[in-house]
Structure formats: structure tokens, C-alpha cells
What does this fold into?
Amino acid sequence: MTTGRTAGHGPLTGVRVVELAGIGPGPFAAMLLADLGADVVRVDRPGGTALSIDPAHDVTNRNKRSVIIDLKAPDGPARVLDLAARADVLIEGNRPGVAERLGVGPRECHARNPRLVYGRMTGWGQDGPLADRAGHDVSYIAVTGTLGLIGAPDRPPPVPANLLGDYAGGSLYLVVGVLAALHHARGGGAGQVVDAAIVDGTAHLSAMIHGMLSAGGWHDRRGANLLDGGCPYYGTYETADGGYMAVGALEPRFYDVFTDLLGLTDVREARTDWTRWAELREAVAARFATRTRDEWTAVFEGSDACVAPVLSLREAPHHPHLAARGTFTEHGGITQPAPAPRFSATPTAVRTAPAPPGAHTREVADDWDVPALVTDPLERVSAKTTVNTVTTAVKDLPHRGD
It folds into this structure.
């Protein structure tokens, strides 16, 4: 039994993906495709990538297989192109022009496989004045206006980890683009290049707010709007033990429940009077400061006040609702988010641990019929023989007259 094979579970079973190793949004996008059942082969480089963590704990490499190819070696590009010729999707996250210089750009790949979906993940995009410039999540979200939405008006905007740019504006848009292009190709169309830029995706995420801005329903500054912390009944408050509660009591009926349970019915009318919002905020903050986070959690338990405790990463898997749904799972000693979304007919799961670099070279050489992946001559012959096991066995049988 081959334990490393990752295909066979999820709606993308049968889809083959080549991932050129990188960091951040590219690996996450490939993990999402792998979680959905695609057979993702990660092409790792000798020595690994910058900013990488211990491969045994890098859950963005779960449900994948790994081979090592040195793209700067004379035969490196040819080995990647052999994989691309047998793939449905290729994902790369280099700066514009790098894949071309290495000999594995769209032109070379489409010459081998015209129906290949070539997914490109960058921060600035494939063109524009900054296309060749270095950057990271915080750089990209800064110029889109989305970083400027976050935080108190009298403090620098806080950095939202790398969730908003890399993963929401980057990975998820790459996956949507890849799946749309794959649908087109499987419907008889040609393969194509998907240019997924974090600046484009992050800007797209703010579509509703741009509509509100145009309609006069959003002020172009932090901490002055319904959804950016400016509203006293949509934000976070510190509790007596240094914890925090999140409040989202926007609608009148939820707000009424919130103020009832908080014991602040005397300031209820301040909801619609923005001139009293500061007064309301102070009253809410003072009340939350009288009890611990767990005590307030118990107060709001089972209500429609839209109030929840702010949990840490280690606490979140133990939240009763998340535990009941199995939102987090444990695999190989690592607690991690379970695959999402969920499917009624083609369920997904964490099937394999993070792929160690190069651990599946022989296996992929066999499954994808690419014996050249195996660099050792004797192993290469063995891999080629394995691919053709049945044919070879029949040929080698002695002829029998009966």
C-alpha cells in the first residue's frame, strides 16, 4: 500500500497539480487544492526556501507529495516540463520573468501541454511599475487602502498577520482563478495563464466598502464607521482579567438583547445618536471591566446578542461549537484547521502529514510516468520498470504451446 499518495478524496480527485515551491500564498493555495482531493506534487528546491519552518510542522504542505528538482541544473527544467506535460495545473510564485529565465514559463509549459492552467501568484502582479519590486503582505495591503481601514484613529494601523493579503487577497483568488480556468479547459477551451496579484485580490475584497464610500455611508478614515471599530456596539472590550469580548450587535433586536444582558438599558437610545457614541462606548467598557472573560461568556451564552469571547490560537480548537463541528483536527501530533468548505458527496480530510522535501520522488516518478525524476541511473530504470510492470511481466513470460 502506498501511504504517500494524496489523491482519492474530495471533489478534485483526479486533478493533477504541480507546485513550484515558494512561501506564503502559493503553498497555501496548493494546500487548499490538495485538501479538496487534487494530487499536488510540490517541486522543492535543494536546500529549501527562505523563511521556511521545520518541514514536519508546515501544515501548508499536508496532503501533498514532494520531489526535489534543481531548476538551475542542466536537466532541471526538462524534468519540471515532464511533470507539466502530465498536469492539469501548475502554480508558481516567482517574480515576473523568473520562471521564463529558468525555462519553465507559460510558453515552454504550453508547448508541452496546451490545456495546462498556469497559475501565477505574486504581490504586485505580472505588470505595472512595481511588478519587479520585492514586497510582503503588509506592503501590498498598504497601497490598496485596506490596511488603512484597520485600527484606532490615533494609533498606527495594526498588522493583521498575513491573513488579509497573502491568503484572502492572494491564495483564495488564485484558487478561484485556477478552478475557473480549469473548468474552461475541460469544457474544450485552451489552457491559460492566471495572473493572481495580492493587490488585485485585496482591493477586490473591499468592494462593498467602496460602494458605501460612494453612497456617503463610509468615512474615509479609521475608527469612524459602522464596521471599523468606530461604532460602540461593533468592536472589542477588555474584561477584568485582561481578556477581551467581541461585540457585533448591529441590528436593533440584537442590540436590545446586548444592552439588556449588559445591564445598560439606560443608554440604549444612544444607538442611533452618533453624538452619544463616546458616552455609550465608555459605559460598555466600564461594564465589561467588572467581570472576567469567562463570566461574560456565560452571561451571553445562548443569546442573540452577537457577543463572543476573543480566543487565542491554542484556545480556539476547544471552543464548544468548533469542537462539535470538528473545525480543527489533529493529525500526526499537530492540531490544525480541518479542510474547508465541506461537501456532502465528496468529503475531504487531512490525509497525510506535511510532505518532507523529496520524500516522494520515486513514487511520483511511478504514478506520473516520469522516470527522469529519479536521478540515480539504477533507480531510474527501476522506476521506469515499475510504471510498466504489467506490460513487462507479460513480455517476459515464456511462450507456451498450450
In short: Residues 288 and 296 are 8 Å apart (CA to CA).
